[in-house]
Amino acid sequence: MYDAKSCNPLAKPFYRPIEAAIRWCGLIDEEMQILAQVGDALLPPASAFPMYPCLAANTQRIVHALENNELPSARDGRRVGPNEPVARARLTVLHTDLKAWMAQHYPDQKPTFLFDEIERATHQAINADSFRALQVERNNMALQLKEAAAWYDQHHDEVQRLEAEREQLRQENAALRARLEQSTTDASEPDPRHRTTLLRIIGALLDMAGMMDEAMAKTSAAHAINSQLKAMGQREMHPKNTIAPVIVAARHLANERID
Questions:
Q1: DSSP 122
Q2: Which of 52, 80, 107, 131 has the most CB atoms less than 10 A away?
């Protein structure tokens, strides 16, 4: 089966400097017109092709490289020795020499007549040494990833156990906090079952304190209330803030009993 990629229709075994510059600039469709106007001259006329300023510039680069032995010179496609005179109309450069020269001096330039698709897609900084270095780095990273995965597998159960313990401690802490808040609320006042008993005791004390002044009566009542609360395991009450309302309730209960 015919392989269309087996050759490059723009490539030639060798080029005149102007022919190489035409391909370098991507002006292959205008090649016949340009060659007809340039003729046997080495460079295009200064006033020619103002719409293609890179054409003259790239031709001059190639000619300069040939004249300074940066590029090996050839006569009609046959390489000649350094500084061997060659007629300008017959001065050529081999395809392989031009490709190597451009890769070295213009690595950002990869015209299609010299470089294939893979070569144009490959970064200029990547060579065999850098590729091997990248491969070693990749292998090291793969080894580190494998070791990390093994450590995770080894400690996965322990991590889950610690997370479960943390969750259990969090729940226990929340339960203790709720119990503490509830006990604080419950301890602020005696439960209703003991309240009536306390009120009856206070009412009796008030009856006995009929001959006492009000201050003495409150003091005796406070002492009796707190003694009873202590015996029941309840928190004692503050005379100023909580006992006074209790005394009022006890008087009311005593009056109901008399009635």
A1: S
A2: 52
Helix (H/G/I), strand (E/B), else coil: 110: coil
Q: Distance between CA atoms of 104 and 187, rounded to whole angstroms?
A: 91
Provide Rg for the chain, Cα atoms: 53
- CB count within 10 Å of CB 253 equals 16
φ/ψ of 236, rounded to 5, equals: -70, 155
* Per-residue CA distances from 180 to 106, 176, 177, 189 (Å): 81, 6, 5, 15
Residue 90: both structure tokens together: 């017959």
Backbone angles phi, psi at 71, to 5 degrees: -115, 130
Q: What is the mean pLDDT of residues 132-145?
A: 84
Over residues 58-79, the pLDDT tens digits come to 999 999 999 999 999 999 999 9
The upper half-sphere exposure of residue 54, i.e. CA atoms within 13 Å in the direction of its Cβ, equals 9
Closest CA to 241 of 193, 205, 195, 189: 189
Query: Treating both helix axes as pointing N-terminal to C-terminal, what angle do 31-38 and 17-24 enclose, rounded to 10 degrees?
Result: 150
The Cβ of residue 89 has, within 10 Å, a number of other Cβ atoms equal to 11
